[in-house]
Amino acid sequence: MQRGSLSTLAREFLQGSFRGVPFVVLGNGGQTGRKQAVHDYPYRDTPWVEDLGRRGRLYRITGFLCGATCYAQRDLLISASEASGPGLLIHPTIGIIRAACMSFEWRERDGVTGVVDIQLELLEQRNLLTSLVKTSLDAAVAIASVAMQTAASSDFSSKGVPAWSVGEPAINAGKTAAGNWAATAASVIRSPSVMGASVATLPGNNGRYAARNTGTIDPTATVDSVWCALSEAVSSLDTHISNLQTTTTAADLATVILTIPQSLREAVADPGTQLSVLLPLTSYNPISGQTTAPIGAAIAILIDAVAALCRRAALAAIAQACADWQPTSSHEAETLRLRVAKLLDAEALVAADDGDDASWQALRALRVQVTQDLSERASRLPDQITITRNACLPALVLSQQVYADATRAPDLIRRADPIHPAFMPASFEALSE
Fold it and tell me: Which domain holds residue 388?
């Protein structure tokens, strides 16, 4: 076979690469399963098979190199296979994974130059395709959240601007309604849970009450820097709240209202705590008097419009917090999915009843993105099961018994929340793997 025909043939196959070195993929296979330890006992006909977890996924890929640079590519693949640590494998059907090269074989065909047959054996370390899916879902949630804020602001303007123009009584009523809602945000940012979430960003073990859902630890953070950052966040939020009373137009009032939940979310590093402090802002229903008088009707309309915008601003911030939140079990992800879906459904029903068509459509679109994101994560997480023992045992002992890994003790302590880690309850919730 001539070199030109080999180059033409190579273009008919799919391409792959390992550590950035490309090659032509001819075929591939794999090996998966469970790690099993077989125990034989005297005078027992059947052995006991102990499940030790999922076996690493092994991939065998066959392909070839051709062309003027095939020998250079061969040498690069040899260097890539001998390099320490895992490398990035890009495969047309397997996807994108980080894998360790277990072996690399190459062979030159007899009597043929310019072509090298190769075979790679790789052990998966991490599947990066799910990370790419997660990133795209997070981006979709953020876009839907921004769209919902825009729609909510538009619907508020259509009702709030005419009511605002009636006069000072309606304006003061609208500002008061917004201020009462914002007072909840001012209260929760000073709560112990927010302080604990700030401490969780410090390096080291700060105790189980400070260990939150935060995904980032700042190695340069100190206690003083953490408290200073929190103080600045509190001061910034207080400034936004005070600006509610100095706004001169309905559009300015809407802008400040939309800013408050986002400022509160950004002030808290822990997504789990973000959810806990934002959820109270979604249940705001001030009483507005019903009257046929022009001023009284304008006051009622503006109060209702402000309350709706406040709730929808909080829901938009909650959606973004859900995208950052890292559940540890499928039960946690499913529970939050149902809770957030219920909140979005309830607000969408209110928007439909009030004739806020743009907000209704945006809320439904946001619900789809949030629930899809949480469902996708729930499908990849272990279940939550109940562990029962006859006596109260230390957390280290239980983690060794359940997982054969003493480093899992902090997770058991967090879930069981015992009085003391040396005396875990006889029955508690734990991850299935």
Answer: 384-431
